[in-house]
User: Fold Type III pantothenate kinase from Sedimentitalea nanhaiensis.
Amino acid sequence: MLLAIDCGNTNTVFSIWDGTSFLCTLRTSTHHARTADAYFTWYATLVKHYGIDADITDVIISSTVPRVVFNLRVFADRFFGCRPMVVGKPECLLPHPPRVDEGTQVGPDRLVNTAAGFDRHGGDLIVVDFGTATTFDVVAADGAYIGGVIAPGVNLSLEALHMAAAALPHVDISNPQQVIGTNTVACIQSGVFWGYVGLVREICTRIKGERDRPMKIVATGGLAPLFQQSADLFDVMEEDLTMHGLTVIHEYNKENS
Ligand SMILES: Nc1ncnc2c1ncn2[C@@H]1O[C@H](COP(=O)(O)OP(=O)(O)OP(=O)(O)O)[C@@H](O)[C@H]1O
Ligand SMILES: CC(C)(CO)[C@@H](O)C(=O)NCCC(=O)O
Ligand SMILES: [K+]
Assistant:
């Protein structure tokens, strides 16, 4: 069985793939100082709690935080006796290498999202991921990542207002029906929610204009459903997109190396 690990700047997600489906998805916050033993204590407790009988033979890691990879490598080696595949490292092959400016280190999560989107939908895609940052990955007809957009994430924008303005409280995102807020919290929620709706629409319209062709918009990340509810922004929403991409890349490396 494969253990797929998606390590973002905010959260780290583990998922067990048995070749047909994901048996479970475990989430923890990202901390570079977490040791291999600490990962295992957390992992083993949850796997037992869910009654999963997992025989892990392979591990694949995508990490936007370089420092956490060391402890995750030790974790894979110590507890599963395997050398993990790490997306973005030269020895981890990609089905379609990115076409970007020389010296650019594309975020591994974006490479994984691209592989997943192309596997499920073919090319000419815009993949939108609402994580710590909101990213737009443009996928060409042949499946290559050819560039995109990085915008501040929704929660980051809310946090930045709270941090920088003495009178603004911490607010959770919501999808207000009205744009005119009649209290401080409603004003902030409106600014971030409707501001993001506009941001997503404008960026996707401009990408389609620059590519001059129809493109499918695939969205992932915890906040995608909230935006889709109030504004018809995406063609498809797939919660498991990044995890699916990790299985695609793992499979590709098994077949080609
Ligand atoms: N309705 C909601 N209101 C507020 N937060 C939500 C809601 N639904 C999901 N979330 C949060 O959205 C976040 C999105 O998770 P996701 O895994 O997509 O990205 P992340 O973990 O924040 O970022 P990264 O992957 O960069 O670490 C999660 O922290 C989740 O708790
Ligand atoms: C943009 C983030 C933070 C989104 O997780 C990540 O993909 C990243 O660190 N990217 C590196 C820069 C790039 O993708 O061009
Ligand atoms: K993510």
About this structure: The chain has two domains: 2-86, 108-245. The pocket of potassium ion (ligand 3) is lined by residues 8, 109, 129, 131, 221, 242 (CB under 6 Å). Residues 184-211 form the longest helix (28 residues).
